[in-house]
Batch of 3 targets.
Target 1
Amino acid sequence: MCMVRVGLLIARLFDAYQSHAGLCESSLEQAILESGTAKGRLIHYHSLLEKDILRSLQNSKTQKQNNASKARISEVWNAAADSGVSTLWQQWHCDYGIFTVLTSPLFLKPTRDVPSEPDVATKRWTEPAVNGDHWKVDHKLSEGDSNQLQSCDNRSIQEEKPRSSRSQQLSSSSQDLNFSMQECAPPDGYSSLRVMDAHSRTTSVSIPSDYLIVQVGDAAQLLSGGELVARPHCVMRPTSDRDVSRQTMAVFLQPAWDRSLSIPPGTAQERALEAGGVATNLETHIPLLASRWKDGCTFAEFSKETTRPYYGADGRQSRK
């Protein structure tokens, strides 16, 4: 709810600016409130090591194959530091709602040795995870320093006994490797989020641990007549460590599905559609806004046309 309120406050400030400047009338705050919903997602970006482990486990059909997979996992672990692979965690894209509110990311790194128990206060709880499995999360915070980012020795995530066969395989393999996930500082000193401006220049965004970041989406660009601009962005895999995973909480604020995405009266369509610059679309291969939007279309129709090039049968991310 805190993240929702931040998005609503920014929408209110923009609406006040539009009114004070005598620009086109728009009400982003009202558009968000009319939807009555906000989607919250905890997004986990797998490290290359995790992807290799999951791939090995998925290919296991019998106990014999499972034992071979465990041997393969050890090989992957030992070779992890020798790989210089650098890819995108998330392809270039623009958000298509009004605002996306993001927390600063949390980075986790595996360690083979189980850390010794520090003299700290421990808080435990169990949260539901995907497919009905449960994971126990132990937050271990140093006394008098609970609001600061902890070192890799002071926070760990350990598995509770899972219920599905796949999770049992993961648990067994994790025990054989004797590793736990430890919080660590951002690799390369950045959050891995990169943003592109209208001149195709990219910037790495650093997000302090006590900050929220708000991204503008296509719907806000259309409803504001181009006063707000949706910028292409991507998430880079760290170049310094292939074993690091990334997780962040995102809250998506968007119009109601049946809301018409009409450009404000008196605003030229070209200005609203091309406010972000055409060059960025050529660099990132993001479909032009004009190719995804039709005058009078609903947000649901616009969403379908926007997600199809990414996640459809022939989309760029359909098999990722």
Note: The two ends are 31 Å apart (CA to CA).
Target 2
Amino acid sequence: MAPIPSFSLLLLLFAFAFPSSSSATTRKLSALEQQPLLKYHNGPLLKGNITVNLVWYGKFSSTQRSVIVDFLSSLSLSSPKTTSPHSVSSWWQTTGKYRGGSSSVVVGKQILDEKYSLGKALKTSQLKALALKAGYGHGKAVNVVLTSADVAVDGFCMSRCGTHGSVRVKKSMFPYAWVGNSASQCPGYCAWPFHQPIYGPQTPPLVAPNGDVGVDGMVINLATVLAGTVINPFNNGYFQGPAEAPLEAVSACTGIFGKGAYPGYPGEVLVDKTTGASYNAVGINGRKYLLPAMWDPQTSTCKTLS
């Protein structure tokens, strides 16, 4: 099966590339928030207990790894401290409004490949091979490959910031995902709004909540592909548009992080009084994150946390 690109910023960048059509783009985004776009294509979804296994490809610091692991570990927290609308778990709960109900996420295996076993330029087929390093066939699991800032991947920074798809092993299909660190390759494309955009007005970027533009950008794209994996794991779940390039739960709400968002403006978000960092969700260990809006199938809106 062909990989499914993450298009969480594509419409936004098109708006930058063609400034004269910005009002039309705004109208399209407004319509997006009012119309039920995601059609169910009768395929299986990932629900219940899901294990996310991680393959770290390249060099990541322990701090970088902890930012991402803490995000994943925050998705299914249910303690009183996470009942706030500004919690990571509240953001994830929107996936439970799709057919089949809620899913809980736990972090499973973590594989370190710091010696670049397949080199520093990867094809999609190699991403799938790396994903299988975390194993397969044991319950509901998603193997996620995370590539460091010095690793190039086919299509990275040109048409995608992350991918999710599936790998066939014998007669079974297993979901996988990939997200790259764009810090040195295309932060204006894959780490917006923490970096000035490639196109359009060069407005000041937001301050990354964990002080790492590349990794905070990875969280946005990981959130995008993970939500897409849950509602469309095998290319026949919930999506709009062509199956080879679908709009899914988060990519259907491109560029929206808070109320009042429009192309080039992420919307109203919270700002840390001490660091000046922008965020809209809090997770374990007091971690702050900026998470994209997700399509709510019950209200037919792009739901934001702020």
Note: The longest helix spans residues 213-231.
Target 3
Amino acid sequence: MSLILFACVVRVRDGLPLSASTDFYHSQDFLESRRRLKTLALRLAQYPGRGSAEGCDFSIHFSSSRDVACMAICSLQCPAAMAFCFLETLWWEFTASYDTTCVGLASRPYAFLEFDNVIQKVKWHFNYVSSTQMDSSFGKIQEELKFQPPVVLTLEDTDVANGVMNGHTLMHLEPAPSFRMEPVTALGILSLILNIMCAALNLIRGIHLAEHSLQVAHEEIGNILAFLIPFVACIFQCYLYLFYSPARTMKVVLMLLFICLGNVYLHGLRNLWQILFHIGVAFLSSHQILTRQLQDKQSDCGV
């Protein structure tokens, strides 16, 4: 008998199902677990990143981060480490295929129907590959579960009576785990230093020009903004390199555009070499941001 019976991907903020596996189980207990899973999906935003709800014959596990959650119905014989390793693998597969914008714009259930095949593939792998081949992967998850155990519910706690939660246990909300980026490279550090230097130059020139303009004329407001907007863009580029942000490519292109337009506008206050220096640093920073990715965790879970 399979240990993982059903899996789905849902949107956290409203419980909208995005994709799901095909199940061939029609027992009353399984159908009841499906109903309770749907109810729990509507309230995922109230819980920490990982949780389990156990019943008589089946257990429900969920793992959420950002606005995407993966949920599964498993047999009681399925180890928790295996269930959460499966869910984490599924989460990485989904977020690698669809960005935050696509998820946020989804307006109908099962909008990512093509991902169903991926769910079936990962589910089959975890059900039929020998557990001894994935012991090292499970060991890492077991250590994480010891350090930060998932919230434990009963299936009765997933019911909603008259739109109000009937569970009486005070749930302790914890932040979702942060995403680890790839290590900072030497070229990345250089781009940060140059970016901070460009930001400082823009800020100093902008403040100096603002003090002068307030005393003399108001027609230089455009020049002031042309210094200060690239200053903000440079600082934001540093942030995008150091920390993960959704829709990162769009933000990088936007910051690069602000810096290029600002420096072109300042032609006359800056010579050609200064303009090329600022634009070159902006392109270097943009390249470093786009090439620094999230650490690949899929290999940790044996898929």
Note: The first strand starts at residue 4 and ends at 11.
